[in-house]
From TrEMBL:
Reversible hydration of carbon dioxide. It catalyses: hydrogencarbonate + H(+) = CO2 + H2O. It comes from Triticum turgidum subsp. durum. This is Carbonic anhydrase. PROSITE patterns: PROK_CO2_ANHYDRASE_1, PROK_CO2_ANHYDRASE_2. PANTHER family: BETA CARBONIC ANHYDRASE 2, CHLOROPLASTIC (PTHR11002:SF56), CARBONIC ANHYDRASE (PTHR11002). GO terms for molecular function: carbonate dehydratase activity; zinc ion binding. Keywords: Lyase, Metal-binding, Zinc.
Amino acid sequence: MSGCLCLPCCYKKPSAPGGENTTPPAAAIDSSSSSLLQKPTYHPPPPPPSNKMDAAVERLKTGFEKFKTEVYDKKPDFFEPLKAGQAPKYMVFACADSRVCPSAIEYAVCALKVEVIVVIGHSRCGGIKALLSLKDGADDSFHFVEDWVRIGFPAKKKVQTECASMPFDDQCTVLEKEAVNVSLQNLLTYPFVKEGVSNGTLKLVGGHYDFVSGKFETWEQ
């Protein structure tokens, strides 16, 4: 499913109780990668991919090798700072970030001190279409998926009430944005998020990417 999941990405908070290695990273990776890429002499190379899964794995391998030779090896100074750690300013929830663990949010806010949490929905979202198509009281055909989508029910009810005269596709577009607002509200149920927003150290931002028109819209919670 190409599901949103900005809509279910953010749940409400439950109410229940040796020596230092001095080898430069670029040189180390170059050395280890070169040795890994050398074909062994004691047996023949593996046969070509025999099915789609093998082809997908081979594509990942080829893509990395291309990145290594065409990007990484040519710009070592660009990647050098990565060894010093990270200090991200943004935490982003996008499509399919459906079951983001609360501990990941807590770590980003309390330990990494991110300044902005962005929740992004998008056009033609399969998850939103499923939500709007889901009948109240209907039997669940995909038990976990249905639970995942049901988080957006408040947004669905709002859209069906306020936009009843709109065509289905237009209602989906409105719901894509309202589902983002549900996630933003759910984020505020976490004390460390609410505290950060209250004292001005954290900002919640909603976003919607329309890949049909090429528009990207943002708004603050």
